[in-house]
Design brief:
Number of domains: 2
Mean pLDDT: 93
CATH class of the largest domain: Mainly Alpha
Helix content: 55-70%
Order of helices and strands: HHEEHHHH
CATH architecture of the largest domain: Orthogonal Bundle
Structural class: mainly alpha
CATH topology of the largest domain: Multidrug-efflux Transporter Regulator, Chain: A, Domain 2
Length: about 130
Amino acid sequence: MNIGEAAKASGVTAKMIRYYESVDLIKKSSRTDAGYRQYTDAEVQTLRFIRRSRDLGFSLERIKTLLGLWEDRTRKSAEVKKLASQYIEELNQDIQKLQSIRDQLQLLSDSCRGDHRPDCPIINDLATKSHCH
């Protein structure tokens, strides 16, 4: 199938398919005599795998690793679980950071009158405090 058909079948845009080829996430597609990209069902399945991995937020580097594990029939599921567990821990850290940011903004918002007067604790905080992490 051509790139448009592969895009439709996989849910990955043609632009992203070309990008994934350029960063060697997927192998370069075969070409017709006229130079059009051609994709097999197996390649479309790989694109679906990548799309689902991206939907879950995996980085391209991790997707490369996951693709390698997917293609390796001798893999141990422990390797896949370890990768997922590392990512879960990073997500938990990101969630904590976002909750902290939300809580800080909520406090600032709660202390702002939100009326026609120019004084605003939100602006004052942004202008005067340095929050180093």
